[in-house]
Amino acid sequence: MDIKVYVDADDDDRLSRIMVRDIAERGKDVNSVIQRYNDSVKPMHLQFIAPSKRYADIIVPQGGHNHVAINILLATIEKALNDKTWLKK
Predict the structure, then answer these.
(1) Contact (CB, 8 A) for 42 and 11
(2) What is the distance between the alpha carbons of residues 73 and 66, in angstroms, rounded to a whole number?
(3) Phi, psi (rounded to 5 degrees) for 3
(4) d(CA 69, CA 32)
(5) Which CATH class is domain 5-88?
(6) pLDDT value at residue 53
(7) pLDDT of 88 higher than 80
């Protein structure tokens, strides 16, 4: 299958996930997580990740909370697996 999917997550959601992970799994403090986010993560997202959105076949807004978009992707994948026409390409 050749589907380009861009999962568009809110900036605040991204930051909160990074904070939870870095504090719980990496032992970082809140200030160091925020500094790394502002100095590295956000600028790299804006430079490299966000521009790739224009090449996506499907854009899923609201990150993983968009159940309609997830169900559409799931149905598309299931159909392709059942048809197996994509194997002939």
Answers:
(1) yes
(2) 11
(3) -120, 125
(4) 34
(5) alpha beta
(6) 95
(7) no
Tell me, what's the pLDDT at 63? 81
What pLDDT, in 10s, does the model give residues 14-67?
Answer: 999 999 999 999 999 999 999 999 999 999 999 999 999 999 999 999 888 899
> What are the residue boundaries of the structural domains of the chain, listed by start?
5-88
pLDDT > 60? residue 13: yes
Length of the chain: 89
Residue whose C-alpha is closest to residue 35's, from 62, 12, 15: 15
3-state secondary structure 66-89: CHHHHHHHHHHHHHHHHHCHHHHC
Tokens of 61: 């807004």
The structure tokens 């032992």 sit at: 27
Report the pLDDT value the prediction gives residue 39, as an integer from 0 to 100: 97
Token pair 């403090």 in the structure block, residue: 29
Q: What is the per-residue burial (b if ≥16 Cβ within 10 Å, else e) of 37-55?
A: beeeeeeeeeeeeeeeeee
